[in-house]
Design goal:
The structure holds four protein chains of four kinds.
Chain A: E1 4-5, H1 11-27, E2 34-38, H2 45-48, E3 54-58, H3 59-68, H4 70-81, H5 91-102, E4 105-106, E5 112-113, E6 121-126, H6 131-141, E7 147-151, H7 162-183, H8 189-212, H9 222-229, H10 231-234, H11 239-257, E8 260-261, E9 268-272, H12 282-291, E10 293-298, H13 299-305, E11 308-311, E12 318-322, H14 326-329, H15 336-350, H16 360-373, E13 378-384, H17 388-391, H18 394-403, E14 408-413, H19 423-436
Parallel strand pairs in A: 1-8, 2-3, 2-6, 6-7, 9-10, 9-13, 13-14
Antiparallel strand pairs in A: 4-5, 11-12
Helix pairs in contact in A: 3-5, 4-5, 5-6, 7-15, 8-11, 8-15, 9-13, 12-19, 16-18
Chain C: H1 9-19, H2 21-32, E1 36-39, H3 46-51, E2 55-58, H4 79-89, E3 98-102, H5 106-118, E4 124-128, H6 139-158, H7 164-187, H8 197-207, H9 212-226, E5 237-242, H10 249-257, E6 263-269, H11 274-277, H12 287-297, E7 308-309, H13 314-325, E8 330-336, H14 340-355, E9 359-365, H15 371-385
Parallel strand pairs in C: 1-2, 1-3, 3-4, 5-6, 5-8, 8-9
Helix pairs in contact in C: 1-8, 1-9, 4-5, 6-12, 7-8, 7-9, 10-15
Chain D: E1 15-18, E2 30-36, E3 40-47, E4 50-58, H1 63-78, E5 88-92, E6 104-105, H2 108-120, E7 126-130, E8 135-140, E9 146-151, H3 159-170, H4 174-181, H5 198-210, H6 215-237, E10 243-246, H7 253-263, H8 277-294
The chains are: A alpha/beta, B alpha/beta, C alpha/beta, D alpha/beta.
């Protein structure tokens, strides 16, 4: 069937926001503001309490931007390897370090600026084997930037208890005086509370948007989602971000009502799992053009930026329903303790990407349920050499999907190291997969 | 109708000519030169000669293999996976697990009782180059290829070797040579290492009898022996036709 | 008349336990009728199992090439997790009743889950959340809370209740084992250490395989006999081994016996060596708190060693002490292929060594070791430290 | 069944040489260095630390035979010298363990360091040696003693062999691949093929052949990646002038030129064959060891 298509109206708003984000970090000092760097998973609302002129640089999205601009990426990777850094480490991290060593800073549009703007402090979390050590080494490369990492490795949401939440909250509490000391600023709890509300709104709204993509035809395809979900990874504590997601929700909802799709012709619906090889998004374009195949999303794009109910309390079934915001939960946040407690619990419990690394089973359920709920015909997995965490369990999941009659293909690559990607081999996988399923090329 | 299946591989180009009743009229297998188009022409010419046919007798051409784009006049193209599956199903209908080992690429295809492809796996980055690894090793050992397979059967012990990377395995072979290990042991070590790596691809789709081995390396009795040991099950090789011709055959069948 | 260490019965015993670990466990089961648990990471509080009458044994690899794990674990995960899972899938651990992991790196994590799911004889498995942030002040309390749940679960599984008395005994046995092995290590500070790194590895790894009571007995007589051991080999360069699971005999043999130049390991900073046993449990009224402190405060695995507030690595402080105490001249960094936590420390670690003028060589370990290439690297490494008189 | 190995493009010429102007009978110490590599074997004879004769042959499948052959060919060329006339023999290289009559073995790292010092003079501080299997970056002092060295990690193994592989792939004699690759250098230099792994790089090269790239462009892309890998290793060990390249690779302008330009340093040149560095170093150590034993 022919499908009506039209570009997203709020596309430019998202592009603009992201562009400004990287500029703000660069120019922060001219305005007497504060810079901090950390993982996209760091508790972003917390530094917001230092003032309204506090600007962050989150490492993974920055690494992805580097990777997208292949030539700069190669330069980063080769330079950091010359420092004796191993090749198989996190791809984002190596781009980030390389950028520091080259003393070049990359803006969203690919413009390079010198020098690399140093943060006043690093504030991150530790959940995979790299996060805290990433910023530990970055701090050493930058000559000793104060660094604080919050250990959040307390297990999946459905197994949370007060002791575990307390463990995280207490680390967050200590972080505040630590930040005050470094920045010489007085911490403002009102700003923290505002940011905590904003975070939940933004993440739960993104989840609602993702759900709209269950419609046939799918109103969004994953390639554009990459530019949309990212705001939740760079500055979700900013109420502006939540507002943009409301706007996007309304537009996507109306697209669904009017049967507007992402592709002119939707022959095949598939899901992915890992971060994509950023330098080779042509993989998605190829599937669209040659096979009218739409990528509906991934536990990556959905799970990273979204708040979801996730595993049921028995740990048997994954529930792809948006997580409640404070209002929806009937909670009122009035002080620092409540705010920290909320953001800790919300993230630990509902951030999908923090759940599936505590067992193959969770990731199997999460993925399988997504295939069902989004009415996908198949799964195309990226065996991502660039990320131990995201690539964990992938082959077990593949085995599980195949046994449950979900056609599954895998291709090898690296989200942020172009040297690990073999184009010919990848397209060969895709063609073989489609042919074996009897899906004809449309061109 | 007469169909020619053309498999342009990285090392060899094969052609198989079939008629409606799926009888093989002719075939060829020549080294792939730098000029793929020229190679393809030669391969077709040779196959036609064997079949005692001319170009005009061919109704359809089907291309497969890594260089399939070098067959501009092909009526259709199919991937190696489908070619291997179809070819294998024809020469060995009870084959459920088809393992193809070529010079650069190895793949495993799960074929259903209906001949449809149920699942497949291609070599990961680090598992590539099995076939050409053998060439290099034959050069080091200075034994003819036929010998190379046979002597591995005479090995008394198996020397464990890094099985994940051909290049690294190669360095180890050199070390073994210099440590004056007997050639049979070294040959066995090499075959085991390749079998180990190829098996790791095959296991991804699951080992289900019959296991059929195709592609150039299926001519190497040392390799077949190692595969049997590695998989702990019988491993078959096509009897009707040379194992490296199966994908070209599969390509031809696709149009019949 | 001095004794030859190689001839000591205890060395033979350690080696036998090391080689016949599975036979031992099966025998132990027959004798005691108890359960045997396999654990994955040295953060497992073995004392709790021991107190419940369960024999905890460390799951390690066999260093043989394998392909059976490849459908479940991608190639980019470390040789150790492939090798250990392969042991389970091949039925080598068919006597285990359960498997346990104290939260560790991602590699071990997924090997553990595949092991628990796919090894048929596993009736009980336990994934214990364990803090990565062992350098933050709240880790101990969190750990203690997890130990409580863990203890309860073990009690439920074994149908026993673990009393304080039993915990105290277990702690005593384990502390004793730690103390004795520290004493043995103490002797390696000598100009001519009585034992090699290979001996030390077999001693420590065997302690992870057998009933610690038996191991303690052997250790005690071992310490006695070591008094009159006369080192009959040239010590040569004093080496420190930095690594993780370094239980590949061929690797240690190659370095200590297969090179043109003498060299001896005097300390192993890894989890088949010192990192496993180095710190003691300091008894206190709350037993689980005492245990929690030991496991949180022990010399950390690189996976758990990172900055909180100020930039430091606790493991590095320990390494500095060892360099001084053991008069370390060279360091072999045995880098498990794909092990990110270790790789993440290496650039800074190299700086540390250079600061102390300790020469260092990095070797990347796989399931099997390319002895040929390694020999060249190690030999050149040792050559560069000596042979002065050949230059005139 | 088809025979795969008919092309021999990877083969390179062998040489045997004697300095007729010297009389070995006048020498106080006759030392011999044997570098038994994975691809080639060199035997060097020195008279009181001065180069006298050498052979440079391909290594066969039996290292002991290869050594005998290499040694015999030198002695035959000299004519009247016998094994017994040699005072001290040092073995080095991959196969050093299998040279029965060597008095001592020393690694190729130490030998290349020492040899580079002789071939290029005492100003050499950084030596690059690329063998069939291994890449070595060696830092030496004014005496040619190794101060520090680095060898390639697993994923960059077989770089040297890779050149043979590519020569075969393109059916071009190994001695010509380098010069040919420079035809497009530097102006038309394409992106390098995979700088990590030669297996990976090879599959990329096959892709380029399929795309119909001209040989010189393919070779340029390949040598670019080799050079990148080499430079990475050199920078990790820290390049300090003077800089010299030993081993077979020094004869390949495709690598040498690119490495020099990327480093911004020119490699030293010498009247001697740099492929002999290992054996020369071994022979020099042989002399030292002999004199030491006499003390």
């Amino acid at each position: 069937m022919e499908v009506k298509v039209r570009p997203l109206d709020c596309w430019d708003d998202f592009k603009k926001y992201r562009k400004k984000y990287y500029e703000n970090y660069l120019e922060a000092k001219d305005k007497g503001g504060i810079r901090w760097a950390g993982s996209a998973w760091a508790f972003d609302p917390v530094p917001h309490g230092l003032g309204e002129d506090v600007y962050s640089l989150t490492g993974e999205p920055y690494g992805a931007t580097c990777a997208f601009f292949q030539d700069f990426s190669r330069e980063c990777l080769e330079n950091i390897e010359r420092q004796g850094v191993a090749r198989d480490l996190c791809g984002y991290m190596r781009n980030y370090w390389g950028s520091i060593v080259l003393d070049k800073y990359l803006l969203a549009d690919g413009t390079l600026v010198e020098p690399f703007p140093k943060p006043d402090f690093n504030f991150t979390i530790h959940i995979c084997c790299s996060h805290a050590k990433w910023y530990h080494f970055a701090a050493e490369l930058e000559g000793g930037i104060p660094t604080y990492a919050v250990d959040i490795s307390v297990g999946p949401g459905y197994m949370l208890d007060d002791k575990k939440i307390e463990y995280v909250v207490r680390q967050l509490k200590d972080a505040i005086p630590w930040m005050e000391k470094i920045t010489g600023r007085e911490y403002n709890d009102e700003l923290l509370i505002k940011a905590v509300y904003a975070e939940a709104d933004a993440m739960s709204t993104w989840a609602k948007i993702c759900k709209l993509n269950q419609a046939k035809p799918a109103p969004l395809e994953e390639k554009s989602m990459f530019s949309l979900y990212v705001l939740n990874l760079i500055n979700r504590g900013d109420p502006e971000v939540a507002k943009l997601y409301y706007k996007l929700y309304d537009e996507v909802e109306s697209r669904v009502k009017r049967g507007i799709g992402a592709l002119t012709y939707e022959q095949f619906r598939f899901l992915t799992d890992n971060p994509p090889p950023w330098a080779f998004l042509k993989v998605y374009r190829y599937l669209e053009k040659e096979y009218a195949a739409v990528s509906l999303g991934a536990i990556y794009t959905f799970g990273l930026g979204g708040g979801w109910i996730g595993m049921d309390e028995k740990g048997e079934k994954w529930i792809w329903e948006p997580a409640p915001t404070p209002e929806e939960a009937g909670v009122e946040i009035t002080n620092r303790d409540e705010a920290l407690r909320w953001t800790a619990e919300y993230n630990l419990r509902y951030r999908a990407s923090w759940q599936h690394e505590y067992s193959h089973w969770i990731r199997k359920q999460e993925t399988y349920q997504m295939v069902k709920d989004w009415k996908a015909d198949a799964m195309i997995m990226h065996l991502n050499r660039g990320c131990e965490l995201w690539n964990m369990s992938t082959l077990e999941v593949r085995d599980y999907l195949v046994k449950n009659h979900v056609p599954t293909a895998t291709y090898e690559g690296n989200m942020a190291d172009p040297r690990d990607f073999d184009e010919a081999r990848t397209f060969n996988v895709i063609d073989s997969f489609m042919q074996s399923l009897g899906i004809e090329k449309i061109s | 109708m007469t169909v020619a299946g053309i498999d342009v591989g990285s090392k060899f180009t094969k052609v198989v000519i079939l008629n409606d009743s799926k009888e093989i009229l002719g075939y060829s297998n020549i080294r792939t030169g730098i000029d793929h188009h020229k190679t393809v022409e030669e391969a077709i010419k040779e196959a036609l000669k064997k079949a005692d046919l001319t170009r005009d007798d061919i109704n359809k051409y089907v291309a497969t293999g890594f260089g399939k784009i070098s067959v501009p006049f092909a009526d259709s193209e199919i991937t190696q996976v489908v070619a291997a599956g179809k070819g294998a199903y024809f020469v060995w209908p009870t084959a459920r697990t088809v393992i193809e080992v070529g010079a650069e690429e190895s793949r495993a295809v799960k074929v259903g009782e209906d001949g449809n492809i149920k699942d497949f796996a291609l070599a990961d980055k680090c598992a590539a180059g099995a076939g050409s690894f053998v060439d290099a090793m034959v050069r080091y050992l200075e034994v003819p290829l036929e010998e190379f397979g046979r002597i591995s059967l005479e090995a008394k012990e198996s020397v464990p070797m890094n099985a994940q990377c051909v290049i690294f395995a190669e360095s180890e072979v050199v070390s073994l040579l210099h440590a004056n290990y007997p050639k049979p042991e070294i040959s066995r070590a090499i075959h085991d290492a390749i079998a180990d790596r190829v098996a790791s691809i095959a296991r991804r789709v699951g080992i289900e009898d019959d296991v059929l081995l195709i592609g150039g390396l299926a001519n190497d009795i040392g390799f077949i022996d190692s595969m049997k040991r590695e998989l702990g099950t019988e491993v078959y090789v096509p009897d009707k036709i040379a194992p490296e011709l199966v994908p070209a055959l599969g390509a031809a069948i696709a149009e019949l | 008349m001095g004794k030859d260490v190689e001839r000591l019965p205890q060395i033979k015993q350690f080696r036998e336990w090391f080689e016949k670990r599975h036979e031992y466990a099966k025998e132990w089961k027959k004798k005691n009728g108890g359960k045997v648990i396999g654990y994955y990471c040295t953060y497992c509080p073995e004392e709790i199992f021991y107190a419940a009458g369960v024999l905890p044994v460390r799951i390690l690899g066999s260093h043989e090439p394998e392909s059976i794990t490849r459908p479940y674990l991608h190639d980019m995960y470390c040789p150790f997790c492939h090798d250990t899972l392969a042991q389970g899938l091949q039925g080598r651990y068919d006597y285990l009743d359960g498997v346990m992991l104290a939260q560790s790196c991602l590699h071990m994590r997924q090997a553990y889950f595949s092991f628990a799911d796919r090894v048929p004889n596993i009736e009980w498995s336990y994934y214990m959340p364990f803090p990565h942030g062992v350098n933050n002040p709240y880790a101990v309390e969190y750990t203690k809370a997890e130990f409580e749940k863990f203890k309860a679960s073990v009690e439920e599984w074994t149908g026993t209740t673990i009393t304080n008395k039993e915990l105290d005994e277990a702690i005593e046995v384990y502390n004793k084992n730690r103390e004795l092995m520290m004493k043995v290590f103490e002797l390696r500070k000598a100009e001519n250490p009585p034992i090699t790194g290979l001996h030390a590895m077999e001693m420590v790894v065997s302690s992870q395989m057998v009933d610690k009571r038996e191991h303690n007995e052997v250790l005690e007589s071992f310490l006695e006999d070591l008094k009159d051991v006369e080192p009959n080999r040239e010590t040569g360069t004093r080496l420190m081994l930095i690594g993780s699971e370094d239980d590949d005999r061929s690797f240690l043999e190659m370095i200590e016996h297969g090179i043109n130049y003498p060299a001896t390991f005097v300390y192993e900073e890894n989890c088949t060596g010192a990192r496993y046993f180095w710190d003691l449990v300091r008894p206190e009224e709350d037993r689980l708190m005492a245990l929690a402190k030991r496991y949180v405060y022990r010399v950390p695995c690189p996976a758990k060693d990172w900055a909180v507030g100020r930039l430091f690595r606790r493991r590095f402080d320990h390494i500095e002490e060892i360099i001084k105490d053991y008069n370390v001249q060279g360091a072999i960094i045995a880098q498990m292929k794909f092990c990110d936590p270790h790789e993440l420390d290496i650039p800074s670690l190299r700086k540390l060594f250079e600061q102390y003028n300790v020469k260092h060589l990095t070797l990347e370990l796989d399931i099997t070791q390319p002895i040929g290439q390694f020999r060249t690297r190690v030999e050149a490494f040792l050559e560069a430290m000596g042979e002065e008189d050949l230059f005139f | 069944m088809v025979t795969i190995q008919e092309s021999e493009y990877w083969k390179w010429p062998e040489t045997v040489w004697v300095d007729e102007s010297k009389n070995w009978r006048e020498a106080e110490v006759i030392s011999c260095g044997i570098d038994l590599g994975s691809v080639s074997s060199q035997v060097v004879l020195m008279l009181d630390g001065e180069l006298y004769a050498y052979s440079n042959l391909r290594t066969g499948s039996s290292s002991s035979e290869s050594v005998d052959k290499a040694l015999k060919s030198v002695l035959e060329k000299i004519g009247d010298m016998k094994m017994e006339d040699i005072h001290y023999i040092v073995g080095t290289g991959y196969g050093r363990v299998s040279i029965p009559f060597a008095h001592k073995t020393i690694t190729e790292i130490a030998c290349h360091g020492r040899g580079a010092n002789y071939i290029y003079g005492p100003s050499v501080r950084t030596v690059l040696d690329m063998g069939g299997q291994d890449l070595k970056a060696i830092k030496i002092d004014h005496r040619g003693k190794v101060v520090n060295f680095l060898m390639n990690d697993k994923c960059a193994a077989g770089t040297g062999r890779g050149i043979e592989v590519v020569a075969d792939l393109l059916s071009i004699p190994i001695t010509e691949v380098g010069p040919l690759s420079l035809k497009v250098y530097p102006d038309d230099e394409p992106e390098p093929v995979s700088t990590t792994c030669i297996v990976f790089g090879k599959s990329e090269i096959l892709g380029l052949i399929r795309k119909g790239w001209p040989k010189e462009r393919i070779l340029a892309a390949f040598f670019r990646s080799v050079a990148t890998r080499v430079v990475e290793l050199l920078e990790r060990v820290g390049v300090e002038p003077e800089f010299a390249i030993t081993g077979g690779i020094s004869k390949n302008p495709g690598v040498v030129v690119r490495v020099q330009d990327m480093l911004g340093i020119k490699a030293l040149e010498s009247k001697y064959d740099p492929q002999l560095a290992g054996a020369v170093g071994a022979a020099l150590f042989g002399r030292a060891l002999y004199l030491k034993s006499k003390k």
